[in-house]
Amino acid sequence: MAQSALFKSSIGKKFLMGLTGLFLISFLVIHAAINSMIWFNDGGETFKKWGSFMGTNPIIRAMELVLVAGFIIHIVDGLLLWKQNRDARPVKYAYSNPPAKSKWYSRSMGLLGTLLLIFLVIHSAHFWIPNRMQQGLTDWHNEINLYGRMLEVFKNPLVVAIYVFGCISLFWHLLHGFKSAFQSLGVNHTKYNQTIEYAGIAFSVVIPLLFALMPISIYFGLVN
């Protein structure tokens, strides 16, 4: 009963948000590392090798369920926090004067999260869903050619623009979310707060940049 009440509270929701956030951050590292293998420019052999391992290994496939659950919990928890914060101020101020230290992106996590959700749906429709459908209809070891699909999908400049925009949204989301996740888990001390902040800034730049450069590189023929 006490645990149930905890996760219904604002503190509990923020703790859950931080926990799932750090879990998804670890997924971004792995996803970026494997996708970056397209830059070996070996016809996608290295990328296919590791991509196939991630897509057919039974342990990884089981963890995929945990990953999906992590996304769902993070999204739902974020929406609940947004609603809770909105309900706390049912009457909007005639003049908005946010705190001097408050950044616009920290006040716009709901909007940024929504944009990322839309981008996630588009990304899944391009790659993850067709691949799982192929495996479900044939054999779970039988994947689509994800490398070839990337080359095909990123021929479209509109799609490339959507992905770049999604990566920009990810940058702003991570810029606040990385540090906030540690604070939500109680990791908040003057001794290492600055280190976490700098690590968060570096992570927020490097990971979205890597993801954005992939469709750009393919579109301009730098990867083939």
Description:
With 224 residues, the chain is mainly alpha-helical. It has one domain: 3 helical TM bundles of succinate and fumarate reductases (Up-down Bundle), CATH 1.20.1300. Helix content is 75%, strand content 0%. It is built from eight helices and no strands. Helix 1 (2-8) packs across helix 2. The protein starts with a helix and ends in a 5-residue tail after the last helix. The model has no long low-confidence stretch (mean pLDDT 87).
Number of domains: 1
The unreliable regions are none
Question: Helicity range of the residues?
Answer: over 70%
Instruction: Find the CATH topology.
Output: 3 helical TM bundles of succinate and fumarate reductases
- Biggest sheet layout: none
Q: Can you count the helices? A: 8
Give me the secondary-structure category: mainly alpha
- Please write the string of helix (H) and strand (E) elements: HHHHHHHH
Q: What proportion strand?
A: under 5%
Radius of gyration: 20 Å
> What sort of overall outline do the alpha carbons produce when their principal axes are compared?
globular
Q: CATH class, please?
A: Mainly Alpha
Q: Roughly how many Å apart are the termini?
A: 57 Å
